[in-house]
Design brief:
The chain has 73 residues and is α+β, with helices and mostly antiparallel strands. It contains 1 helix and 5 strands, in the order βββαββ. The strands form 2 sheets. A 3-stranded antiparallel sheet has the order 1-2-3, with helices on one face. A two-stranded antiparallel ribbon has the order 4-5. The longest helix has 12 residues. InterPro entries: AdoMetDC_fam_prok, S-AdoMet_deCO2ase_core, S-AdoMet_deCOase_pro-enz.
Amino acid sequence: MLLSESHLSIHTYPERGFAALDCYTCGETVDPQLAIDYMLAVLKPKTTHAKKLVRGMGELQVVEPELKATELV
């Protein structure tokens, strides 16, 4: 899915019961966490693991964000 200044992709591995969500953004007009939280609400995974990589603003930062499924609107 193409978004303004970003993109969202889901890589699936059904033989392993695994899917990887990638949400790439640039600029400050998009909050990638909103997209991830929404996708969690839609997909309802049993477990989640998250890494947030902050690039292009000096040294690479790796953060483990808090994930929460938002209510579907």
